[in-house]
Amino acid sequence: MKRAIYYAFSLVEVTLALGIAAFCLIAVFGLIPVGVQTNRNATSQTAATNIIASVIADMRATTSAISPQYGITFGTAKTLYFDGAGQVTTLLGANSRYRARITFSSSPDGLSYADVKITWPAPVDPVSGTPSGAVEMFAAFDRN
User: Fold this and answer.
1) Which among 5, 94, 4, 84 is positioned nearest to 44, based on CA atoms?
2) Are 58 and 69 in contact (CB under 8 A)?
3) What is the structure's pLDDT at 23?
4) Residue 11 falls within a domain, yes or no?
5) According to the model, what pLDDT value does residue 22 have?
6) In the prediction, which pLDDT does 4 show?
7) For a tag on the chain, would you pick the N or C end, based on fewer CB atoms within 10 A?
8) For residue 144, what pLDDT is reported?
9) Calpha distance 8→138 (Å, rounded)
10) pLDDT at 143
């Protein structure tokens, strides 16, 4: 007759294993808010960069003094507001998420320089407050 051999864990071993597992899970759960915030920041920066690219492409495609898509007049500063889907308005609204400020400077050689700065959230004016994030790009235009 063969004897069966049983292997078992003592209560102390089970308690230690559960303690180690709980410690590791607490550390992982503590990283979740950091990951969510990093993802949110990356999404906002990507959207702001896409808005800047769209605004500069609109200004580069302009053959007259006013851009067709955003109504930007060369040489005149303008503020635009964008919602989360990228829709533009000229007024700050409840759905406004991004603020685009377009300013111009000219040089003696006939070039026009545009400074396009996107900040978010839109209700925070970067002149009087500190926005959560910002993306800025400079572009040169030869309007001769």
Assistant:
1) 84
2) yes
3) 94
4) no
5) 95
6) 73
7) N
8) 63
9) 69
10) 64
Q: What's the structural domain count of the chain?
A: 1
DSSP string across 52-71: HHHHHHHHHT--SSB-TTT-
Whether residue 64 lies inside any domain: the answer is yes
Low pLDDT (below 70) residues in the chain: 1, 107-110, 143-144
In this structure, what token pair is assigned to residue 12?
Answer: 């102390």
Specify if 121 maps to a domain. Answer: yes
Which residue has 């320089």 as its token pair? Answer: 113
Contacts 24+ apart (CB under 8 A), 116-122: 116/52, 116/55, 116/56, 118/48, 118/51, 118/52, 120/44, 120/48, 121/97, 122/81, 122/82, 122/92, 122/96, 122/97, 122/98
User: What residues make up the domain containing 96?
Assistant: 31-142
Is position 9 within any domain?
no
Backbone angles phi and psi of 118, in degrees to 5: -110, 130
